[in-house]
Automatic annotation (TrEMBL):
PANTHER family: HALOACID DEHALOGENASE-LIKE HYDROLASE (HAD) SUPERFAMILY PROTEIN, PTHR46649. One of its GO terms (molecular function) is hydrolase activity. Pfam families: Hydrolase (PF00702). Keywords: Hydrolase. It comes from Streptomyces griseoviridis. NCBIfam families: HAD-SF-IA-v1 (TIGR01549), HAD-SF-IA-v3 (TIGR01509). This is Hydrolase.
């Protein structure tokens, strides 16, 4: 194995909870909301799937179906999809929907998994190239910089920058080319079996982690350091 590709959300980082997301935006806007109402609204936003990186929508409204399917291909589509879902939930002020979307792109909204720095640092020390391959509509590089992980990442291949989404093998091929890595000696690590599993079509090994809250997954990445064989490795 000469290179490892990682997904961003649910793999290296986890976004804050819907309740924390809403609470932070309300505090910044100085909009009061009772605790009971905040809890109810956060639950409704979660069920709507309005938080990027959070739970998927229970149902995508018909009028948003087309933009939802293409959401990771441009920043405009990404914003339209998620603010469209958010606007299905009444908020105290209409501008809060855009504020919620802006909040999720800030480093403060994300936490790295406990073993992320250790794993990335160890790969760097071993001379193994590292790339981030993500279906996303915005630039996560500031999140990596703020949390001290940027020095360990050699390349970022992001769907919105190329107009290609995982599981399309072309996105993984771009990452391998940027790293000068042979796909047959490259491991893809992610939490989405369909999207991240697309690397297998290119000949990469694949290892899956669980998309859990940070406190519930203290060591999900450590198998990458040696316990996972690079050929089509998999874990539940």
């Amino acid at each position: 194995m000469t290179a490892v590709l990682f997904d961003f959300s649910g793999t290296l980082f986890r976004v804050e909870s819907c309740a924390a997301w809403l609470r932070a935006v309300l505090a910044d806007a100085r909009v009061p909301l009772s605790e009971a109402e905040l809890t109810r609204t956060a639950r409704a936003l979660e069920e709507a799937g309005a938080l990027p990186g959070g739970p998927a929508p229970l149902r995508v409204p018909e009028e948003l179906a087309a933009v939802w399917e293409l959401r990771d291909q441009t920043p405009e589509l990404h914003r339209a999809a998620y603010t469209g879902l958010s606007r299905r939930v009444p908020l105290p002020a209409p501008e809060l929907h855009d504020a919620l979307y802006e909040r999720h792109m800030t480093p403060a909204a994300w936490r790295p998994y406990p073993d992320a720095a250790e794993v990335l640092r160890t790969l760097r020390e071993r001379g193994i190239a590292v790339g981030v391959v993500s279906n996303i509509g915005w630039d996560p590089r500031p999140v990596f910089r703020e949390h001290g992980l940027a020095p360990y990442v050699d390349t970022y291949v992001l769907s919105y920058e190329h107009g290609i989404r995982k599981p399309d093998p072309r996105l993984f091929a771009l990452a391998c080319a940027a790293l000068g890595a042979d796909p047959a000696r490259t491991l893809m690590v992610g939490d989405d079996r369909r999207a991240d599993g697309g690397a297998a079509a290119l000949g990469c090994g694949v290892h899956f982690v669980d998309h859990l809250p940070v406190a519930e997954r203290p060591a999900g990445l450590r198998p990458v350091l040696g316990l996972v064989p690079w050929r089509a490795a998999e874990s539940s």
